[in-house]
Amino acid sequence: MNNQELEQQLLGLDLAQRIRILQLLAQSLTEPSTTQLSQSPNELDLNRDREALLQADRSPQHPLRGIPITIPPDFDEPMPELWDALEQ
């Protein structure tokens, strides 16, 4: 089976099946394989799968989330020079 056929087959699966395959692939990269590939979508714990997705590290998608925001002490002080510039 070539890559295009595999891709078409994967895209033809429903969301629960694709999530399960993604989890199996991720597990195979990080720990010894103990999961059986023969589970049907009806046997999946969709709540657990949903929780795993929600708890996934999203920092690659949002790299600024870990940077603290610092507001200068003079942030809300009046700026008369700004009003003067606007009048001109």
Main sheet, how many strands, which sense, barrel? none
Helix count? 4
CA-CA gap between termini: 72 Å
Overall, the morphology is elongated
Secondary-structure-based class equals: mainly alpha
What is the string of helix and strand elements?
HHHH
Strand content: under 5%
Helix content: 40-55%
- Chain-averaged pLDDT: 77
Radius of gyration: 25 Å
Indicate the low-confidence ranges by residue numbers.
Answer: none
- DSSP summary, beta strand count: 0
Q: Could you walk me through the main structural features you see in this protein, from its secondary elements to its overall organization?
A:
The chain is an all-alpha fold and 88 residues long. The chain has a domain at 1-33. It is 49% helix and 0% strand. The protein contains four helices and no strands. The longest helix is centred in the first third of the chain and has 16 residues, at 15-30. The mean pLDDT is 77.
SSE blueprint and pairings:
Elements: H1 3-11, H2 15-30, H3 46-55, H4 80-87
Q: Features of this protein?
A:
single chain; 88 residues; mainly alpha; 4 helices
In short:
By secondary structure, this protein is mostly helical. It has helices spanning 3-11, 15-30, 46-55, 80-87.
